[in-house]
Amino acid sequence: MIMKWMFLLSLVTVGSLAFLKPGEVEKPEPVAVIELFTSQGCSSCPAADRLLSKTISNLNTKDPKILALSFHVDYWNHLGWADPFSDKAYTRRQYEYAKVFHSKSVYTPQMVINGTREIVGSNEANLKNALQEAAKRTPVTTFEILNAKIEDGNLLKVKYALAGDYQGCKVNFALVSRHETTPIKRGENGGKTLTSDNVVRQFIRVDPKQSGEVLFNPTTLKRENMAVIAYVQKQTDYQIVGAARTEIH
Q1: Torsion from C-alpha of 158, 160, 165, 170, nearest 10 degrees
Q2: What is 116-153 written as a DSSP string?
Q3: Is omega for the bond preceding 109 within 30 degrees of 0, making it cis?
Q4: Do the domain assignments include residue 108?
Q5: In the prediction, which pLDDT does 64 show?
Q6: How many degrees, rounded to 5, is the angle at CA 119 between CA 188 and CA 127?
Q7: Residues with Cβ within 8 Å of residue 189, at least 6 apart in sequence
Q8: Engineered SS bond to 208: which of 166, 168, 224, 247, CB 3.0-4.6 Å?
Q9: DSSP 73
Q10: Where are the alpha helices (DSSP H) in the chain?
Q11: pLDDT of residue 18
């Protein structure tokens, strides 16, 4: 049994792990998933994009495990600049959160932390407070395995294994480009060059199983600029109860 457990540990690609003594159980570390809803066509959004990038680059061991995603919505596209990373599916996701928060409208930039708290995406003080709250909560679901490998030409196969309580949940898988730089030619940000990190390029939601796999088709994305962020989310109140990230192999 111990040998089997150590073998599973050797497969995990979701972060650094210390070897456990016989009989010890690893305590899941707190996790914070930040979902930023943004647009290159919104003049208020670059500040939030910079805050997200700053948060990613300033992570340290005292923070909870922070996984950040940038969802580009499409409802700003009619103002002269069509955001190349926007998708109607990401707009629909933001409207799903609006229902959870009992709001009749959506806005950018908006950050949602762990599915249960929303703030203006450029408000650094509120983000810090939300992350401090997240640091007090222990996930009830963990990824024992999460790895991603390009197979069969250009298909990206993501394999996962879950442990803990994931009843009544969905598992979200986001293929992100780690860094993007875009010269903006028109619209509210016309003439600027914008940068974004962890931009969601493809998004898949599945019913949870103890183990399984999903497939992405990364097309033009470069391997070194890709990563996969996975998180388990309740279907009722949208609380995120576990998350992990892996690079591409």
Answers
A1: 20
A2: TEEEETT-HHHHHHHHHHHTT---SEEEEEEEEEEETT
A3: yes
A4: yes
A5: 62
A6: 105
A7: 40, 41, 42, 43, 45, 46, 81
A8: 166
A9: P
A10: 2-11, 45-57, 88-100, 124-134
A11: 39
- Which residue segment(s) compose the domain that 124 sits in? 30-247
Dihedral over alpha carbons 181, 125, 31, 104 (to 10 degrees): -80
Q: Distance (Å, rounded) from C-alpha 55 to C-alpha 77?
A: 27
| Per-residue pLDDT, 25 | 40
Answer yes or no: are the C-beta atoms of 235 and 169 closer than 8 Å: yes
Nearest to residue 195, comparing CAs of 51, 74, 60? 51
Give CA–CA dist 159/136, Å, rounded.
29
Q: What values do phi and psi take at 179, rounded to 5?
A: -155, 135
Instruction: Locate 6 and state its tokens.
Output: 């150590």
Residue 188 maps to which CATH number?
2.60.40.10
The structure tokens 């192999």 sit at: 249
Whole-model pTM: value is 0.88
| Cross-strand pairs, 203 | 174
Q: Assess if residue 191 is contained within a domain.
A: yes
Alpha helices in 12-86 (DSSP H): 45-57
How many domains does the chain divide into?
1
Backbone angles phi, psi at 20, to 5 degrees: -95, 145
Q: Are 33 and 56 in contact (CB under 8 A)?
A: no
For residue 7, is it within any domain?
no
- Residues of the chain whose pLDDT is less than 50? 1-25
